């Protein structure tokens, strides 16, 4: 067990360092290794305690350690923000770091020769003005008093912040301001409309575009050839693991294919459909993305699905919602019926109290309300108390797909659930929800670990891994306009499905269903 724990800690440490380097390395003057050590303290303490004392730390101590580490982390992360980087009083009042904008938008390149160069900054202000002093007067004319009353203009490296009071609805304000700015400045700027994380008031941000004002990607035959090769490479490990699950990892190639292809094709179809859905939603909103590339894994389950990398800003919160909702809904709509069909082909076996999330041939679904209801629906009177399930290969593929979809439904950065919660509630509230969900998942993992007499830490390990994902997501270009009510309702439905997957079956319901 300690080898598995060591492997998970090493993998978590590597992932944490990569995430920190890509997201916050430009946001603080604190050395990166200090932030890494703070974030890794809770899992290291937990791992050491489990290894030496065979039990997790007491819950009050665990909560205290996590709280101290998170508070210290956020304090150090905002340390540079609170320090005045500029010598003038006006420059020191700027709130949003340039790194926040650089994470959302492509890297800025020099302006074309036909655009006048900005004058050098004043000696006392270490800021490159994206517009000339004469252009500021032109910019002010873009803000009508009855649309967005412009209060002041602030300058950041590679950005102009326009603060004021919103006098009309957000959609109309964004559409009007963008039209006015593009009429006078062309497509020279990306125009962001979002809430200030400190004051909660909306503001506009103008960020110079690269020389190529429209991001395009040539879909040559090589791109599709690579996608096809990755698909074939993904078939190899998934077919092998499918044959291993059928207890036939060796033998004639024909026997291996017959035994392994049902699992391979099922999991590739479900996860591929989910990510292709995200790809087509991005194309609908004219968001530049890569092709959906399958990811082969040399270990079980053989693949995690497709990689669709978004390469341009998301236009608004409706697009943010659709990116998360369509992908996760397609996965659920396919995986749940496929799971029910696979369960109907499965048989029941005696219950093993040491069953884990991955005990496919003695599967105990009682850790999840939705899984228990689906098993009872498919097996009926065969699934009763003190009985587990020997899952069919198709049921295993659908179950693994449902686990992956569940992880992606967590309201965390760049996951489907993160997109949905961000679109429904906004950037700052979604960050709070993300932190609360991490705590809730950790509590569920601890409860499951304690209920198994400290022998089954699978959900606890999953909670530790998810806790390393950053909570704050990048804003859309128009991050102020809210989504409509029917999208809110659909979002609540899919979040309710997530909760039904995560919570265990209540004792009263277990007695009623005789499971």
Taking all Cα atoms into account, the compactness measure Rg is 26 Å
- Largest sheet: number of strands, sense, barrel closure: 4 strands, antiparallel
The backbone outline, from C-alpha atoms, is globular
Give the number of helices: 18
Structural class: alpha+beta
Q: Please give the number of β-strands.
A: 8
Strand order in space, largest sheet: 1-2-4-3
The pLDDT mean sits at 78
How would you characterize this protein structure?
- The chain has 515 residues and is an alpha+beta fold.
- 55% of the residues lie in helices and 9% in strands.
- The protein is built from 18 helices and eight strands.
- The protein has helices at residues 2-23, 32-53, 59-77, 79-82, 89-92, 98-104, 133-140, 170-185, 221-245, 253-284, 317-344, 369-379, 393-408, 416-425, 427-451, 458-467, 485-502, 507-513; strands spanning 148-156, 159-166, 189-195, 202-208, 293-296, 303-307, 347-350, 387-390.
- A four-stranded antiparallel beta sheet has the order 1-2-4-3, covered by helices on one side. A two-stranded antiparallel ribbon has the order 5-6.
- α10 (253-284) packs antiparallel against α11.
- It is globular, with a radius of gyration of 26 Å.
